[in-house]
Amino acid sequence: MFETDKEVLDWYERQPRALSKEYVSSIRWNEVKNYPLNPAFVPVLTYMRDIEYFTDMYYQELRRTPTGKDPIIRKFMDRWSIEELHHGNLLNRFLEEAGMPQGKNWQAEATRKIPRLYTIGSYLVDQASRPFGRYFHGAHMVWGAINEITAMNAYRRLADLAGHPVLNQLLIGIVQEESIHSSFYWNVARVKLKETKFSRNLARFVIGKFWAPVGQGAKPAGEANYVMATLFPGKEGLDLFDQKIGSRIERLPGFLGFKGLTERVAPIVQV
């Protein structure tokens, strides 16, 4: 267990990139078309690609908040944003190699579709977090931990369900990097939440009241729901979500017995 956020950052900076040039070059891109890809997973891959690409937007938004001005968190974010963008570009390459041209301007098209309401909401979150200063760091870090842990497990599920060997090779690398990201968020959240009871109460309130599946807001709720229902369907999927994601958040200070994540996802995956 890390005792300070600086220890977490030092650990993070020692971690090598899983998606090195050598690893990416070893992916059998020329064999992508040799294996069938269930059309049901194409919207999932597109959603994941867009959310990874939007990381730079999230990065810019967070930089405006007290959390983003924290030197430890800011240094992590500098590398995190680059790695997530790389994930998006690699997922786009896979779609292209699978025979689904995405166009040279797919990034601009994805950005164009972001609802104006999202931009307004982002501004309001920025303003609302400022009065709390460092006490809001915990809430931001818990939110990031949830999203990174969810993304990591979503990629694992996609690899298992799709059964595509080249996609599996790509997702192994992405999962390894998402695992490192989630560990940073989770451990810094733990450090920040231990500091004050107010931070714990604030974080639990914010997550319980406002959390939604990764990417919802920047992407339509229907698309986010489709991804969750496709990867975590039915009671079995919900139990897996609770085991892999909900239970890990419950281990954070102030979140013992918190079932808000699973309760939020339940109506989506059990339709």
What would you note in describing this structure?
This protein is an all-alpha fold. It has a single domain, classed as Ferritin. It is 73% helix and 0% strand. The protein has 14 helices and no strands. It has helices at residues 5-14, 21-26, 42-53, 55-63, 66-69, 71-97, 106-112, 116-129, 137-162, 165-195, 197-210, 221-231, 234-250, 260-269. The model has no long low-confidence stretch (mean pLDDT 93).
Q: How many H/I helices?
A: 14
Structural class: mainly alpha
C-alpha geometry: globular
End-to-end separation in angstroms reads: 39 Å
Secondary structure tally: strands? 0
User: Portion of residues in helices?
Assistant: over 70%
User: What count of structural domains?
Assistant: 1
What value does the average pLDDT take?
A: 93
Beta-strand residue fraction: under 5%
Question: How big is the Rg?
Answer: 18 Å
Low-confidence stretches: none
| CATH top level label | Mainly Alpha
